[in-house]
Amino acid sequence: MIKKSKVTVVGAGFVGSTAAQRIVEKQLADVVLVDISEGLAKGKALDMMQAAAIEGYDSKIIGSERYEETAQSDVVVITAGVARKPGMSRDDLLAINSKIVTEVTNQIVKYSENAIIIVVSNPLDVMTQLAYSVSKFSPNKVFGMAGVLDSARYAYFIAEALNCSIQDVRAMVLGGHGDTMVPVPAFSTVNGIGIEALLSKEKIEEINDRTRNGGAEIVKYLKTGSAYYAPSASTVAMVEAVLLDSQRILPVCAYLNGEYGVKGLYCGVPARLGATGVKEIVSLNLSDKDLQALQASVSAVKELAGKLG
Fold this sequence. Notes:
Layout: E1 6-10, H1 14-25, E2 30-34, H2 40-50, H3 52-55, E3 61-64, E4 75-78, H4 94-111, E5 116-119, H5 124-135, E6 142-144, H6 147-162, E7 169-170, E8 173-174, E9 182-183, E10 189-190, E11 193-194, H7 201-212, H8 214-222, H9 229-243, E12 248-257, E13 263-274, E14 277-281, H10 288-308
Parallel strand pairs: 1-2, 1-4, 2-3, 4-5, 5-6
Antiparallel strand pairs: 7-10, 8-9, 10-11, 12-13, 13-14
């Protein structure tokens, strides 16, 4: 009998529960949904299982407040933490979410010493650095989801501006997951055609700014929460790349050891994902302007990491 993969999703809020739903509907793995709120994960998991007969999936999902159920997970996704509210930056979440991510990571290490950890909690880059530091796992086995989401937002805005199929758009966003992120028009295309040949400089800069504020725009509309459909889809794309060993090249919050002139810090860069996690950092030949923007983004991440100590 073929052993099914096992994925734990920590945090049964909107991002975590929607990611869990996508994983079981795609039949990628059996899922354990964990949340400290009594009954929350169990209720959502039971609801999803009752949809299985209609949606036609055989993957199982259970909910729990206890980490014992997560033992020997292949992948653990950390979404736990406080979500942004209007007027809050991702940086405002630092003190609160660092305590949560530390506790979660300790539990992961205790029960799933061979797992791959994908961090989604904000502020993303620093929380990923923290999970790596606490877990003491190999850096290729700890990485964060941000660039996939930011690039997906960039792709949507490009498709909207050109009134073209989003299936033809490939977009690239580098750097930290925040106001200093770096949309890269030179590596963003529509069916192989660079967007700089299709859009004016002014329109591209407008789209770049909207991408940098993509999450805040949604927070402003929702008023009491933040985005979760696109973040969960982006997370599952990374989970799928690992479980299927697909070798996809995606923008990943990965540990840099000299690449792009950065050493010992997590930041968003293109990377190849497979069964062992980050298999390779892909080095792009960036323009001086884009390289300077990336270095500024790295500096912002480093400054925030310094606040955490």
